Amino acid sequence: MQSQLSIQLAIATFCRLLLKTGRRFLYPFAAVVSGALGVTLVAITMLLALNQVAALLAPFFGHLSDRWGYRTMMVGGLALASLAMLAVGVLPTYTALMIGLAAIGLAISVCDPALHAYIGACVPFAKRGQTIGLTELAWAGSSLIGIPVAGWLVESYSWHTPFLVMGILGIGGALLLRRLLPTGVTKASGEVARRLPAPQAALRLPTLRGLLVFALLVSCASDIFFVTYALWLVDDFQMGIMALGFATVAIGLAELFGEL
What we know:
The chain is mainly α. It has helices at 2-24, 26-37, 41-55, 58-68, 70-90, 94-122, 125-135, 137-156, 161-180, 190-195, 199-202, 206-237, 241-259. The longest helix has 32 residues, at 206-237.
């Protein structure tokens, strides 16, 4: 049972790595994508803001996960993002990119609460924090592995090739999760689900509102850094596409130590 759960969480973490890479892909390559699409950098950063807005919906999807089932939400969210990434890979237009990034942000809001709740239901309390920490390595993995590989694909093929690859891998991951995740412990019990407050009621809690503001401000601060660092490296150090991808490894190492 323990080995089966480890396999499930390993696949879920890999799927999260795909989503995080898709979410962060535009940061180091914003100038490349804006040039290829014939739009301004401001137009690209507006797409990044749209991605963040989609992430604000996480509390509402967490509520639905307890009612509809953790497996349903994880598989559904991953499938949605994967199909959107495939669409960007096949139809590399600004509109497709906008829809794709919105879908990725939405999928993260759907999948993350469901995965954390699934861990809470299946992992003993004493190991729960460590297990969640290990699944959070997907953030560091996106900078250490995902973005450098994406940089190689952009340099070798085109800016939208990484979306095509991530979409194919994501569909495979969704099918594996659907097959491997059990149908028994997949949502909150009937009694617990009935006692869960609706999102609008929970948002009336001052503590929760404070946490949401905190999370939003931290995300904004992080995004300001991510949006500007690649442009700075290009302008001041004339870094190419491959070099930008590997420069992100430094950020991934910082995240790795933080998550450990």
